[in-house]
Description:
- By secondary structure, this protein is mainly alpha-helical.
- Helices cover 76% and strands 0% of the residues.
- The chain starts with a helix and ends in a 6-residue tail after the last helix.
Amino acid sequence: MSNNAPATxxxxxxxxxxxxxxxxxxAIAAGSIAVGAVVSLAAxxxxxxxxxxxxxxxxxxxxxxxxxxxxxxxxAKDRIATSLVWVCFIVAVVPLVSLIWETLKxxxxxxDVFFLSHSMGVVADAETGGGIYHAIIxxxxxxxxxxxxxxxxxxLTAIYLVEYGRGKLAAAVTFFVDVMTGVPxxxxxxxILSFWILILDMGYSGFAGAMALSILMMPVVVRSTxxxxxxxxxxxxxxxxxxxxPKWRTILKVVLPTSIGGITTGVMLAVARITGETAPVLLLxxxxxxxxxNPFDGPQASLPLYIYRQYAAGTEAxxxxxxxxxxxxxxxxxxxxxxxxxxxxxxAPKTGR
Length: 353
């Protein structure tokens, strides 16, 4: 037995192919960056984007060459796929980080308590001062009203499609939800403009803008809620029905509590999606520099419209206010997303013992 043991270990070791060390991807990445910089300087390229693209191509080629020599072609294909995913991830993240950094650098100039607690009522576009208090009120009211309209309709529609929907009616509802998903925001604004303002003569108001935003929000809520309801195991429904509990009560007490975390996440993401819409607000809310707490009467401000108007003014003071308002809008959307994550984790089913 003792004589065979070394032979067995030697035979097992020969079955293992060569492997690149763990530091190899980092070394290849560093070398690719250096090669990209040298090539870019030699070619007279000034754009950092071009430098990055050249470095990414060199990284992929280098990974494939070294992995092929050490690990073989099959493992090299796996590494090139993994490297391509990382490159695509970096390409997607870099513009986002650049946008956030640029907004933070430019918007921090006037972003303070005064800016958040004052309006533009008596401040001209060329003057310093003023703030976004009136725009914050308008955004909160318009998004809140849109959520009150879209969330119940969207959730009930998803419940119908998952729990009751059969036949032509369910197919028609699904078709129209898909169509609404691709409707441009300007089309939703034009629909409310023609019906609510031109035909019914109700006038510009925050409520008109909220109705257009609710049209954009509904399909997102329907789709996200529908997918969350489909994830609920049928065994839970069958167990509840086997105890003689009506179906409506099963949905209310079993299905919805099980999927409430995912539903809440979808709703919060839908809210974040409509918060930055400008076209419907520009058409229907009309905008004002004064504080209007009544969303049902008269023009009202909002953060996206405020950003558009201040940047269009073209002065140094207005441009600084536009960047600061953009920073406030980004922070608002980030808070919504973080809240959605926290609620989803809080309401997620506990899998531990």
